[in-house]
Amino acid sequence: MDLSIVIPAYNEVESIRPMLQWVVDTLSSEAVSYEIIVIDDGSNDGMWDELQTVQGQFPSLKAIRFKRNYGKSAALSAGFDKAIGDVVITMDADLQDSPEEIMPIRKMILEDGFDLVSGWKKKRHDPVSKTVPTKLYNWATRFMSGIKLHDFNCGLKGYKKAVVKSIDLRGEMHRYIPVLAAKSGYKKIGEKVVKHQKRKFGTTKFGLNRFINGPLDLLTVSFITRFGKSPMHIFGFFGILLFMLGAGLFAYIGGLKLYNMYHEVYSKNIATMSSFYIALTAMIIGTLFFLAGFLGELIVRSSSRSTFEISDYIRG
Ligand code: UDP
Ligand code: MG
Questions:
Q1: Which of the following CATH numbers is that of domain 3-227: 3.90.550.10, 1.25.40.10, 3.40.190.10, 3.30.70.3040?
Q2: What is the pLDDT of residues 192-248, one digit of tens each?
Q3: Can you tell me which atom of ligand 1 is nearest the CA of 75?
Q4: Ligand 1 pocket check for 137: Cβ under 6 Å
């Protein structure tokens, strides 16, 4: 199989059939074998019925239905698990991404040797309330990851098969796939300017909370890529530092007290001194950091891949 087109879709009942038609029309003149994998991310607008209705029309269609809405990352993850194409393309289901970009992206992967090619919606058709924060977000992600992309969260991307099989999408990490890919050792990341359309049907699935979750996920991803496999390296460091500071301060005030007692000089009860409490707090927090490091290490060793529950299939 040459190509897998992975399309996560949540409540896109009006868009899904024209979307499939558009993909099929675009690829019909190309000499490639392909599959289209739609992941119905727990839609409740009748999209699954629509998919079943049209499946006869689209022999290349495969679909996965989630039992409930697990989010775009889980949907992509399920699609990636299932994909068998040498090149995997992801696209949004809402007709905002153009299937005409599929073949050029595939070409960049096959001929120029890119591991991942990310779309860049240079001319966006979204409200300002979205484009401005997006600029900031892209700047922050570039800054933290060192990857020079303009549009990290573009839904339209292409991958070598090995890349999608190796990245581990959890939470809302789909926004940072290029960062995760680079972390997995797939560092040849390219960019292609892509056409972007206004949403025709339905509404965006990410409300204002994207501006809260996005930055938090950025913190998580930069933390995970640096310390995800070894939380002790960061927590242990701060733990030891704080504990030593506290213990040092303690030794100092305790020593001073003993010295004064020995020489029968009056000195305050150390439990009335603020430095006593500072030392105590530093030692306690240091211990907590250490504990967090240990727990982190245990969790790293016992965690598994993304979770989702599938309720139905169209096997194609
Ligand atoms: N999507 C999904 N699960 C979700 C939210 C979104 O599968 O929980 C899909 C959605 O159907 C669309 C794509 O992810 O195909 C991008 O979503 P949307 O167009 O709402 O995002 P935007 O373009 O506004 O960033
Ligand atoms: Mg969209």
A1: 3.90.550.10
A2: 999 999 989 998 888 777 778 778 888 888 887 778 778 899 999 999 999 999 999
A3: 7
A4: no
